[in-house]
């Protein structure tokens, strides 16, 4: 079953647990649905994390491509992982790399672990984002079941280190409460704008679709390409 936004019980999933740093770089901790979000980064990394709270759109393909696809996905969504391990690879080879589709990836947060994954993926900048995203989805069944919150955070750190991110930088990213707050506000605004109710969802030239097979993508894209 696809994960649905209406079931985001973040009041429990994102609430701060004992031993977790919950302070943001500003006066208030990041919150969702009125609950404080636990961040796994070291508290002493707070100051170095303060500079960047910008939320950058993560895009593949030609800026002037005739068809635009926006994916809404959660790093903890199994159907999203299946999409990225299957359909997405064909979509990228046939349409994105050939300049026919501009593809934008936007995160959805069902739980704090998805948010942590986002902080790690974005920590490497645009040039590393999609590679880290691929690793997160490829190993989702492993890191998401690592056990304790600390173990899950460590598994996500390992992915960041494999991608070449230094430990200090990872801790700064994982402790950046202002960035986490900005990401949550950005996700909420995007989901409301496009009427996103489940993941993965796709906005193709302004029309929202739920999860699809590659054949269904081809039919929609080719129609817009005039084929």
Helix content: 40-55%
Described by the principal axes of the CA atoms, the overall outline is globular
Proportion of β residues? 5-15%
What is the correct CATH architecture?
A: 3-Layer(aba) Sandwich
Radius of gyration: 17 Å
* CATH class descriptor name: Alpha Beta
Question: Which strand order does the major sheet show?
Answer: 4-6-5-8-9
Q: How many beta-strand segments?
A: 9
Query: For the residues shown, what is the average pLDDT?
Result: 86
Q: Give the CATH topology.
A: Glutaredoxin
Distance between the termini: 33 Å
Number of domains: 1
Oligomeric state of the chains in view: single chain
* Major sheet details: 5 strands, mixed
Summarize the structure in words.
This protein is an alpha+beta fold. The chain has a single domain (3-225), classed as Glutaredoxin, CATH 3.40.30.10. The chain is built from ten helices and nine strands. It has helices spanning 10-13, 78-85, 87-96, 112-123, 126-138, 140-143, 149-162, 167-174, 177-194, 214-225, and strands at 3-4, 31-32, 35-36, 58-60, 67-73, 101-107, 198-199, 201-204, 207-210. The longest helix is centred in the C-terminal third of the chain and has 18 residues, at 177-194.
